[in-house]
Amino acid sequence: MSVLAYFVLNNSGETLLHCAGESGKVEMLQFWIRRGDYDVNVKNKKKRTPLFNAVESGSIEAVDILLTNGASADVVDTNDDSTPLHCASETGNSKIIKLLITKGKADVNAVDEVKLLVIIS
Question: Where are the ANK repeats (predicted)?
Answer without folding.
Answer: 46-78, 80-104
